[in-house]
Design brief:
single chain, about 150 residues, mainly alpha, Arc Repressor Mutant, subunit A, two-stranded antiparallel sheet, globular, MarR family transcriptional regulator, WH-like_DNA-bd_sf, WH_DNA-bd_sf
């Protein structure tokens, strides 16, 4: 990473925190793409990283659009549009109830997708432990948890 902006030559300080942000983001992207590819090989053609990231943010039981929007930091309109698409894909459904909002729940296909995703991630755990060592992986996870508590 450059320490000087090229146009105005404003000095830039090196930052381990910035490297951490970029590194974590890149790891998340790579795992998302790995998972999407593996799920497509299992027959889940619609399993893109963005679909998986959205579904991964949902609870196993009932979900509500306003809560999803708040948790993801997006508009309720964006959530409604995404939920409609995922309902058409067969992963989610909105069930009728007496309240103002319709609960959003996983369909059987959606639950199978999430179950298969978890299994693929568990398989990836084995690869990471073989490559890094279980102790190193566990230390890394503990350190990430510690960093999260700082904010």
């Amino acid at each position: 990473m450059s320490t000087v902006l090229t146009k105005k030559e404003v000095p830039m300080v090196e930052s381990h925190s910035l490297q951490l942000v970029f590194g974590v983001s890149e790891v998340q992207d790579k795992i998302s793409w790995y998972l999407a590819k593996a799920l497509k090989e299992k027959g889940y053609e619609a399993a893109t990283p963005s679909v998986l990231n959205f579904l991964g943010a949902l609870e196993c039981g009932e979900n509500y659009g306003s809560e999803i929007a708040r948790n993801l930091g997006v508009s309720r309109q964006m959530v409604a549009k995404t939920v409609k698409t995922l309902c058409q894909m067969g992963f989610l459904e909105q069930v009728s109830n007496e309240g103002k909002q319709k609960p959003i729940v996983f369909t059987e296909l959606g639950e199978r997708l999430m179950s298969d995703s978890r299994q693929l991630l568990a398989d990836l755990d084995q690869v990471l432990m073989a490559e890094l060592g279980e102790k190193t992986l566990m230390t890394l996870l503990k350190q990430l948890e510690k960093i999260k508590t700082l904010f």
